[in-house]
Design a protein that fits this description.
Blueprint: H1 13-19, E1 24-29, H2 33-49, E2 57-62, H3 68-79, E3 83-91, H4 97-116, E4 120-127, H5 130-136, E5 137-139, E6 142-143, H6 144-163
Helix pairs in contact: 1-6, 2-6, 3-4
Length: 164
């Protein structure tokens, strides 16, 4: 998901047509909600542009980024989500708290990917300041929520290709 600007042109026509057949959970942190709401809107807009039916998308909110992996597990278990898009924003502070949270969240999401066999997308900004977060949530560096949705579609498409 790294890069300067999001470009859905990297999705094939097959990926785009296939996207509407899956169920998605978007889980957004309420912490730094001005940023995570913009990311959530980017993900929702991209999925709607690819004609994913609204009934195939559930949006959930958790208090902070630390809670993303558990909510993602619940979404996989309860709603049988094919992919989960986790959106959060961790801004560096005066202590190392951000490092501990970012590490725990990334490890939790990675473990859930491996245990569930389903794509759980790490759409969590880990930035030094609020401006960097704004730049990555619809600002001059694109929208990481949109990129996370593209990643979910690509991973589901890859799984389908390998299962054929």
């Amino acid at each position: 998901m790294a890069g300067q600007l999001t470009n859905s042109a990297s999705l094939s026509e097959f990926d785009i047509l296939n996207a509407r057949n899956f169920h998605y959970a978007i889980i957004a942190s309420e912490w730094n909600s001005d940023i995570t709401e913009r990311m959530q809107n980017g993900a929702l807009l991209l999925l709607s542009q690819f004609k994913v039916p609204i009934e195939h998308i559930i949006t959930l909110h958790v208090p902070g980024s630390f809670e993303l992996p558990l909510a993602a597990k619940w979404a996989i278990d309860a709603m049988k989500a094919d992919a989960v898009i986790c959106l959060g924003c961790i801004i560096k502070g005066e202590t190392k708290h951000d490092d501990y949270i970012a590490n725990a969240v990334s490890q939790g999401i990675m473990q859930l990917n491996m245990q569930s066999g389903k794509p759980v997308i790490f759409g969590v900004l880990t930035v030094n300041n609020h401006q960097q977060a704004e730049d990555r949530s619809g600002g001059k560096l694109g929208n990481k929520g949109e990129e996370a949705a593209i990643t979910a579609i690509k991973m589901l498409s890859l799984r389908n290709e390998l299962n054929r």
